[in-house]
């Protein structure tokens, strides 16, 4: 039981660290193209989707009987390990006259938040392994 929760926590942290790493790359790309005409900024969505998957996992799902394999299932179980970060383009906003929608201030703010999240998650991983060392000692 303890190893399952430990492994699950590490899996979630690994996914989150991957998402923050991808977000860093996307933010860097956005900043490097801040003056490129018609460039559309990208963003990474992960935390909200992970939260939805965790919430759906806790909720009791209705069960039903399918009489035909082509029927739409009542609910689909969400595999938390299958939640991957997604990169999407922002076509809805335009910040500049040249069609570019990169707001440098926003990107820098997102970069700082992303760095703080990365540092927090690496601290949690480090703490988890310190606990394992204490238990094994």
Protein model, in words:
The protein has 137 residues and is mainly alpha-helical. The protein has one domain (2-63, 71-91, 101-136). It has helices spanning 2-32, 47-58, 104-136, and strands at residues 42-45, 86-89. A two-stranded antiparallel ribbon has the order 1-2. Helix 1 (2-32) packs antiparallel against helix 3 (104-136). The protein is flat. The protein starts with a helix and ends with a helix. The model has no long low-confidence stretch (mean pLDDT 86).
List the helices and strands and how they pair.
Elements: H1 2-32, E1 42-45, H2 47-58, E2 86-89, H3 104-136
Antiparallel strand pairs: 1-2
Task: Tell me, briefly, the overall form.
Answer: flat
Q: How would you state the average pLDDT, rounded? A: 86
Q: What is the percentage of strand-forming residues? A: 5-15%
Order of helices and strands: HEHEH
Structure characteristics:
mainly alpha, single chain, 137 residues, 2 strands, 55% helix
Short characterization:
This protein is mostly helical and 137 residues long. It has 3 helices and 2 strands, in the order H-E-H-E-H.
């Amino acid at each position: 039981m303890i190893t399952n929760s430990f492994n699950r926590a590490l899996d979630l942290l690994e996914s989150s660290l991957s998402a923050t790493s991808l977000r860093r790359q996307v933010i860097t790309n956005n900043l490097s193209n801040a003056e490129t005409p018609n460039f559309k900024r990208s963003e990474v969505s992960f935390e909200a989707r992970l939260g939805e998957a965790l919430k759906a996992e806790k909720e009791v799902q209705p069960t039903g009987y399918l009489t035909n394999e082509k029927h739409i299932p009542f609910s689909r179980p969400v595999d938390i390990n299958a939640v991957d970060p997604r990169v999407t383009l922002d076509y809805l906003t335009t910040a500049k006259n040249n069609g570019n929608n990169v707001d440098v201030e926003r990107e820098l703010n997102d970069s700082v938040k992303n760095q703080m999240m990365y540092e927090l998650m690496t601290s949690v991983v480090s703490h988890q392994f310190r606990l394992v060392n204490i238990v094994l000692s």
